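Work Package 3 (structural annotation) set out to generate three-dimensional models for the target panel prioritized at the project kickoff. During this period the team completed the workflow that converts sequence records into discrete structure tokens, so that structures can be stored uniformly alongside our sequence database. As a representative example, we reproduce one entry of 247 residues exactly as it appears in the project archive.
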Amino acid sequence: MHIHVISSVNEARTEELQHKTVIVIDVLRATSTMLTALANGCRTIVPVETVNQAKSMQGKDELLGGERFCKKIPGFDLGNSPLEYTSELVTGKTVIMTTTNGTRAIQKAAKASHILIGCMLNAAACARKAANLTGDIVIVCAGTQDVFALEDGLCAGLLIDELLRLHAAGAIRGNLTGPNAPAYVDDFGLAMLQAYRNVQDRLLDALLTCANGKRLTKIGFHDDVVHCAQTHVLDLAPMVRHGRLEA
């Protein structure tokens, strides 16, 4: 099992993701919002890169969701707060979503063999799914404004922790089976694993004190950070198929 971690969407190269199992994470907040929406009954999410793409693709009874600079895009139905995506609003609906970093990271992974959407909410389920797919695993941290974001790094560490636990238990079928098979994690991934283990008992504090946590709290989204800091609460491992994200 080989695990490689990319620090931000700006560092991701489409050709390097080809034929890999890619996990895209954007803890604050795109992938956390997507997972929450699907858990609350959203039928499918269509991640796109630009506002114009989203508007041009909208069909009857489809919702537009997304943000620019942490704020809901004018004219859109929903922003990028997971708490907005209630069952009353999204059950049975298709949401076309564009965010500053998260949906762009998904687009970068278009040539991957498999694209999974991960966050802290579904880390255990996501790791299980990735472990049983073929190919090396690449974790793409979306980051913020093309630079590394600590919350994504901590989530990468959490995912690696879960993957190594599965590997040690011999539970991995798709990526070199068994505890005696080699497990390789790149240097950045190892650093994120240690960072996660250092704060695993106080993840909420870590998220509230990182740059994005402070920014979101300042503009009124403290509860979003609290929500996104939860671990293993959603047993979903959605994949992107034909440009659509489904549970």
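The chain has eleven helices and eleven strands.
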